[in-house]
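ENTRY TYPE: protein
CONTENTS: sequence, structure tokens:
***
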Amino acid sequence: MARIPGQIGLRACIPLFGVTGSRFRMAPPLLTLQDIQFTIGGKPLLEGAEISVSPGERLCLVGRNGSGKSTLLRIAAGEIQQDGGKRFFQPDATVRYLPQEPDLSGFDNVLAYVEAGMGPGDDEYRARYLLEQLGLTGEENPARLSGGEQRRAALARVLAPEPDILLLDEPTNHLDLPAIEWLESELASLRSAQVLISHDRRFLQNLSRVTVWIDRGRTRRLDRGFGEFEAWRDQVLDEEEQQHHKLERRIVNEEHWVRYGVSGRRKRNMGRMARLGELRQEFRDARRAVGDVKMNVSEAKLSGKLVIEAEGVSKSYGERAIVSDFSMRILRGDRIGVVGQNGAGKTTLINLLTGRLAPDTGVVRLGANVELASLDQRRVSLTADMTLKDALTGGGSDWVEINGERKHVIGYMKDFLFGPEQARTPVSRLSGGERGRLTLARALALPSNLLVLDEPTNDLDLETLDLLQEMLTDYPGTVIVVSHDRDFLDRVATSVLVAEGDGKWIEYAGGYADMVAQRGHGVGPAAVKSPPASARKPDGLAPIAPGNSRRGKLSFKQKHALETLPARMEELQVLKAKLQQRLDDPNLYAKDPVAFAKFSAEFAKAEQKLAAAEEQWLELELLREELEG
């Protein structure tokens, strides 16, 4: 293979931030939030929160529902103004923000919406490429999109420009497993710095390199990925509990001295009395960690050993087969995970198995004493004007019955982290996480020995997910769960049902990871192709048209790129050398930090463009050699 002009080795095609160029390592953060204060309704939400994001850094924000993660991300994006503290962006840095609920109004079609988020120098081809990979044509009417389609369009809009910083709030919401796994791969290939909020453990484990924990208004930073966060968090909370216990003991000792240690004096030591008052105030002001959800499922009598038996079941809508010649036996104690692409028919399959929907052909038999409780992903059982109390009691009562015992509704609300003052709060005013907890509370209050959970993990924070997993593990009955959460399925499922297409469903033993090992790939088609180098890294280079390779020769654009890229790479090498020379000045940062930041950013962009050019040249050169045989 020919040598790349300018003596550039293959290692140059895989540049890493902080590795190429000693001065580049010193580049200041692209984004800094310092001592951020934010109050809602007179109650402090953020009190001294801080974030620093460097070029290429992948950071995840974690914390309980309502801890302020989305608020902090909106402040970072400039969507809202903080009450106090400082927000700083590098002047020429580009940023794109993905909200939880994107607004597509005002656009004729999806492509127009995506292109509106691109700048003058961005590659238009990348917008179409991303829409295609996300299952959209670009001609769709934004007003008629489902929640999942809106999320895909919004993702294409923020990914297309490949900005310096991506701020992503729950990017996996409403996405199916193939789309989630594609998104992981796409984000991992980007050089953009990323700040992620997600309740998907596997997604965070695979992408994050830094974890920022928001707890009681403040932030704590762990310079490691999410995989090591939970052990670290537990250690921090244990140490905090020990300190709290020591403070409590000091107060007891001081109170003992006040009562019994001054009997021989006419006046008490006023300094020590003042210290006692300070200790008491410190103890009162200490904001303890938010309590845990307490989940108890209301159990019915045990079902028979055989819970569900399906023989030769089929169901079609028109010419489309949803379930075809499906047979299965579900026994007491089984935990069945159901996975597949959106629209594969997961809910239809569950309705067939539970007798809610009659099959076209075949037979479904339920075992003896089966009592079903279910949770629907769309929360359709909740109406907007229903109060939280009525949603739990059914209305006209103050009591909930759990396992044959009456429990006051306020106490049951507290088990799911609802305050007494929320009893009359309409469902329409609850957050997504609160509606998720409410739906769980309703489902678990029903006596059952068969639990059917359709996307139970939506909008639940990590701690609530932990307790749900423990509850399902201890549940003596049978569980059928539809989920796109891979980690949740690995922890809960004893087997996984996968939609293979054309109405075929196959059961694999074990959790999601076991299914992937047996199947050879995840859910859906085996390949969602990675973009060509020019599409992943838009820098004005002509995209490669892969279809031309079938004709046995390079296209005109490919030939032109192969001929002009060497000169382009040499220009970029010269530019890098000039910028490096300026950055090598040891006094530059002290004398002119603005100039240092400007040169650092220009160096980063030149390096990105050079890497993209090298990758495209290498790809074309390999293609040329293959065609010439």
In short: Confidence is low (pLDDT under 50) at residues 1-25, 262-268, 526-551.
